[in-house]
Amino acid sequence: MPRAFVLAAGLGTRLRPLSLELPKPAWPLFDVPLAARVLRMLRAAGVERAVVNLHHLPDVLRGRLEPWIPSGLAVAWSPEPRILGTGGALLAWRREFGHGAFFLANADTHQEVDLAALAEGHRARGALATLTLWPARPGEDAPIEVDGSGRIVRLLDARAPGSAPGRPCGFTGIHLLEPEVLDAVPGAPCCIVADVHRRLVARGAPVCGHLLEPPAFWSDLGTPARYVGAHRELLRMGRVPPAPGAVVAEDRVLPSGAAVRAPAYLGPGCEVGPGARVGPFAVLGAGARVGAGAEVTRAVVWGGASAGPVRDAVVAPSGTVLPAAGAGG
Q: Do the Cβ atoms of 130 and 122 come closer than 8 Å?
């Protein structure tokens, strides 16, 4: 699948005020912007060209992403003065995506998905669209049901004709689409899930799911608690995605007398002041600084930021501290 469209135009309203400084797709996950990790995943699956749409703080987002574009991936930018929605954004690029299957991916989630396996299942089922899905917990309100063959039999309020109830699931943010799906986009703005896939399911079109099962990981990182919690969970599992020059620290005492309690992430060039306590579940980005005697635990300190005592929060270089209530555990 040589082409992809990456959705990066959202406002990140649940992450304000920090999303007013830095758009969510540029937020770091262990020092690497979220959207850059999506571009890496797409490139690893053979994608050679990606379109990235922009709206909120477009110059900031583009500036943060350009240094991380992987070798062999050509990126085109699609500015949207008015948000066109996850379906409407595609219409200006019909010629680009009208000749073969392509990925459509949210830029602001983190998930472990085998895109080659997704594509194989998509072809084997003759699907018009395939969506990445996560099984719902018992009793959880789920917008999607998928049957044993992988066919989506319910999406929101739409049910495939003659279908029986299926396994409840949620959507994790990646689609593989045949170009015919573009013919079903009614205009802009519109949502690809609610305004396109929902109607396709209702008429019995082959819309399928690719189920991500534990121990795979995914998070939408959509609230401060989920953002900090995703770092904590990846540290707990020992599955920190790589970042250049970083260290996933074990328990240690530093020469300054500061102590690190595992698990913790120390980005390149970070500084820990005398007598400070870092961890457990502390993430210090590249060049971050922890003041003398401060304790940082269950918190994410962005690269270049300075932190005093902080717990269950995100700390930005501007000095903004965003509480992440519920991130502990």
A: yes
Give me the residues of the chain with pLDDT under 50, please: 328-329
What string of DSSP letters covers 204-268? Answer: T--EEEEE--TTS-EE---SHHHHHHHHHHHHHHT-PPP-TT-EEEPSEE-TTS-EE-SSEEE-T
Q: Are residues 160 and 254 in the same domain?
A: no
Is residue 329 assigned to a domain? no
The answer to whether residues 142 and 80 belong to one domain is yes
Residues 67 and 128 in one domain: yes
In a domain, 210, yes or no: yes
d(CA 184, CA 168): 25
Report the predicted TM-score, pTM, of the whole model to 2 decimal places.
Answer: 0.93
Q: How far apart are CA 91 and CA 196, in angstroms?
A: 13
Q: Give residue-wise pLDDT tens across range 24-72.
A: 999 999 999 999 999 999 999 999 999 999 999 999 999 999 999 999 9
